Amino acid sequence: MTIALNSTPAARSRWIAAAPLSNRGITEMIAGPVFRGAGKRWWIAVLLTLPFVLWTLVALIWLLTQGIGAWGVNTTIVWGFAIANYVWWIAIGSGGTLISSILVLTRQNWRTSVNRFAESMTLFAVAISGIFPIIHLGRPAYFYWMAPYPNTMSIWPQWRSALVWDFWAILSYLIFSIVFLYVGLLPDLATMRDRATRRSAQVLYGVFALGWRGSVRHWRLYKRLHVTLAAIAVPLVTSVHSIVGLDFAASLMPGWQESIFPPYFVIGALFSGFAMVLLLTALVRWGLQLEAIITIAHFDAMAKIILTGSILMTYSYATEWFLAWYGGEHADRSLIAFMFTGHYAALYWALLFCNCLLPQALWFPAIRRNVPALFAIVLLILVGMWLERILIIWNTLSHDYMPTLWRVFRTTFWDWSFLFGPLGVFAFCFLLFIRLVPAVSIYETRRLAYEEGLE
Amino acid sequence: MSAIFLAEFETPERLLAATREVREAGHEPLDAFTPFPVADLEGAFPPTRSHLRIAMLVVGLTVAAAFYFMQWWSAVYDYPLNLGGRPLNSWPVFLLAPFEVGVLAAAIAGVIAFCRACALPRLHHPLFEVPGFERATVDRFFLLARRAPSGDDRFDLRHLLESKGALVVSEVRQT
C-alpha cells in the first residue's frame, strides 16, 4: 500500500508541508521505502559508490603491503593526507552528534527530520576516521600496543602521548555513537517489526526492538534516557574534538602550539558537520521523496547555523593571524607570510573563499531557501574544510623553525585514493543504512504532527 | 475475580479521557500503549521511580576513577619513564582518556538500567497475541485497565470503555 503525500502549500505548519497527515500516513511515508523495492535511484547510487569501495580496499592493501612510503610523506612532512582525512572525517562525525544532541536539548522541534541522518552520518564518519590514525603508523600491525593489556614485555602505553588519547577518544566515541543511534532507533524498530510482512524481517527487527510496546512507563524512561544521553554527548564530543585539536596544540611547532586550537576545532566540526547534514538532507529528500516532512524551513534553519559557523571560523583564522603578529615570534610571523604567499598560497586563498567569503551569501533569505544554491555552497564548504586540515599540516611542517628542513609535499596517486575512496565508502554505508532502517525518526515525526495539530 | 481489558482508541485525547474516567469509576488503569510519547498521559499514571541517571553517574565516575588509577599506578609505580624531568603523575593529560571512557561507561550503564527498569528485552509479551495490538506502534492508542473488585454492574469496565469511544475492547487473561 502506498499513500502519496504531496507537499501542499496550504499546510498550516512550518515544519510539515502536508495536511492532513495521519499517523498511518507518516509511517507509510517513512517506513514504506524500506519495505518497497529499492528503486532505480538507489541502485544507480550503489553502482556509483561500489567502485570507490573497491578502490579503498585496493588502496588499503597496497598501503599495508608497501608501507607509508606509498604516500607523499617525507622526513620533514611526516603527516599528510592521513591525518587531514582523520580530522576531516571525525569533524563530520562530531558535527552530527552535536547537531542531534544540541537540538534535542534545546527542544528544537524541527530536528525530527534531520537527527537520524546526523546520527548515522556520525557513525560512518567516525568509523572511517578511525582507520587513518592506524594506517598512518609506520607499523600499523602493532596499533594494539596503544591498549593496556598484560604482555610479556611488561610495558604500558605512554599515557602522555597524543596517539593514545586519540585511541581512547575514537574508541569511546565510536561505541557511544552506536549506542546513541540505537537508542534513538528503538521505537522505530518496533514499528518496523509490526509493519513487516516477511517472517525474516519480523524476526530481525523484532530482536533489535527488544520487545518494545510503547507503554507509558517505557516512554517515560525512554525520554529520560534519550535526553540524558544527549546531555552527556555534548561534553563527550567537545572533548573528543578538543583532543584532536590537542594533537596539534600539544606540540611545539609554529602555527600549531596555540591555545585556541581545541575550541577552533570544535567550531570547525560543527561547521562541516552541518554542511554534511545539509548535503545528505537534500539528497535523501530528493531520493526518498520526503518533501512533505523536510521543508524549505529546515534548510533555512540549517543555513543560518552554517552562517554562524562561518563567522566563528573567520574569527578563529583572524585570531591566528593576530596572535602571530602580536606575539612577535619570528617563526610564527614567517609562517603566516608563508601561508598567504608560499607554495600552497593558492589553496589557502581557496580555503578562505570557501569557508569565510562564500557562506556570507547565506545572509540572503532567497539563497537560504534555494536548495540547489545551498547544495553548491555546502559542497564547497566541505572542500574548504578539507583544505583547512591539509594546510594546517602542510604549512607548519613545510615551514618550521629550521630553514634547512623546509620542503614541500608532493602528492601521489595513493594520497588521492585515500581521499576519494572513503567518500564512496561513506556513501555506500549510508545507502545500505537507509535501506535497512527508516531514514527519519517515525515516532518523533508523529509527535511533531500531533503537536502541530495536523492530524 | 478481576478481569483485565485492553481497549483500542483512535486518538490520544480519547485515550486520556477514558483513562481519567476509568480511574474515577474505581477501576485501575494499568498501562497505556501509544505510538509516540503523549505528555499529558504521563500525568494520568503514577510516577515511575527509577535510578537511571544515578546509575549512569555512579558507573561513569567509577570507571573514570578506575581508569585514572590505572594510569597513575602504571606511570608512577609499575613502569615509570622519566621524560625530561616531567612529573610521573602528569595529571592534566591523565584526565583526558578517563573522561572519554567514563562517558562511554555512563551511556552503556544508562541503556542497561533502562532495559532493567522496563523489563526489556522481552521479545514476546502476552499482549502481542491480541489482534490489532501491532497498531500500538503505528497509529492506535491502547489502554490496559483492571476491573474494580466490587464488580458493580452500573460501572462495568467494558461498557465504560466502549462509551468513551473504544473501537475494540478485548479481555486479557494475565499480563
Count of helical regions of chain B: 6
- State the fourth-level CATH superfamily of chain A: Formate dehydrogenase/DMSO reductase domain
Structural class of chain A: mainly alpha
- The CATH architecture classification of the largest domain in chain B is 2-Layer Sandwich
Provide the succession of SSEs of chain A: HHHHHHHHHHHHHHHH
Number of helices of chain A: 16
Describe this structure in words.
The complex is a heterodimer of chains A (455) and B (175). With 455 residues, chain A is an all-alpha fold. Chain A starts with 22 loop residues before the first helix and ends with a helix. Chain A is built from 16 helices and no strands. Chain A has a single domain (23-451), classed as Formate dehydrogenase/DMSO reductase fold (Up-down Bundle), CATH 1.20.1630.10. In chain A, α3 packs across α9. Helix content of chain A is 69%, strand content 0%. Chain A is globular and about 70 Å long. Chain B has a four-stranded antiparallel sheet, with helices on one face. Chain B has helices at residues 12-24, 39-43, 52-78, 91-94, 96-118, 157-163, and strands at residues 4-9, 28-33, 141-146, 168-172. Chain B has two domains: 4-48 and 126-172, Alpha-Beta Plaits (2-Layer Sandwich); 52-118, no CATH class. Chain B has 175 residues and is an alpha+beta fold. Chain B is built from six helices and four strands. The model of chain B has no long low-confidence stretch (mean pLDDT 84). At the A-B interface, α1, α6, α8 and α16 of A face β2, α3 and α5 of B.
